[in-house]
Amino acid sequence: MPFPREQGRSARPTVHTPPRHEDIRTEPAIVKWTVIALAALFMGLFIVLPLANVFAQAFSKGWDAYVAALVDPDALAAIRLTLFVAAVSVATNTVMGLVMAWAITKFNFAGKSLLITLVDLPFSVSPVISGLVFVLMFGAQGYFGPWLIDNGWKIIFAWPGIVLATVFVTFPFVARELIPLMQEQGSSEEEAAVTLGASGWRAFLKVTLPNVKWALLYGVLLCNARAMGEFGAVSVVSGHVRGETNTMPLHIEILYNEYQFQASFAVASLLAFLAVVTLFAKTVLEARLGSRSGRH
């Protein structure tokens, strides 16, 4: 026998819809636009305006003077050294970042927390201090310096020291992009691949690497940007030898100190252009990573 409906109450249950995102906003429009205007003003004054001034000063004496500053033998040597150091540092940190992320996320071992802390160490140490550490280790009066000099190895005031210093300060970028993602993904897919007969190397190439490729590219991009613009650590170990150990940031400083302002801004504009290209690539990768995480 069906139960009679209660008078004054509907048989259909009441559905409580959550408030829309717009309904919970309480800020007045003036507050929103004030915050946006302050953010835009800050970006304009401290980022866009200085960057535009670099290019304006670089071309202040015309195109011919700009090209002359870039094709100067010392400038070309600085550009070549910067690109070489960046390439070696990025390649080294890409491999070691993958190894470090794999070790931290796929294995449990004593000292794991210490290893994670050491990955972040270059972020907390001043680049100048890191450069001094390499001088104390490989300099003429350092721990290994006399032996290296006796055997014909020159580390400090030569490109090997610049590479070592750059590798140190840029090391965390790749590892720090990979570790959170690999922790989130776990190791179930690799275990399944090994169970189906794949070797560890094949599982890495076919499963792990495709899953982290965009984060890896993002880390490589950040590592490259820092490597090309590093000044503090490189300044300590380079010796400022014209045409030999000066990278682009060091060459810019020398030109500016010698009152060659247009030439210094010309080289700086090339470095700024590389930074803008890096920023554009970073934006594309962020969009790619965002769309990929949205699908998952």
Q: Can you give the helix content as a percent range?
A: over 70%
Termini separation comes to 50 Å
What does the main sheet amount to?
A: none
Are there runs of 5+ residues with pLDDT below 50, and where?
A: 1-10
Give the rounded overall mean pLDDT.
Answer: 85
- Principal-axes shape call: globular
Radius of gyration (CA) equals 27 Å
Strand-pairing-aware structural class: mainly alpha
Helix count, per DSSP?
14
Residue fraction in strands: under 5%
What is the number of E strands? 0
| Series of H and E elements | HHHHHHHHHHHHHH
Task: Give a topology summary.
Layout lengths: L28 H30 L4 H9 L1 H34 L5 H8 L1 H4 L2 H12 L6 H6 L8 H12 L1 H14 L2 H8 L4 H30 L2 H7 L9 H10 L3 H35 L1
Helix pairs in contact: 1-14, 2-14, 3-8, 3-9, 3-11, 6-8, 6-12, 8-11, 8-12, 9-11, 10-11, 11-14, 13-14
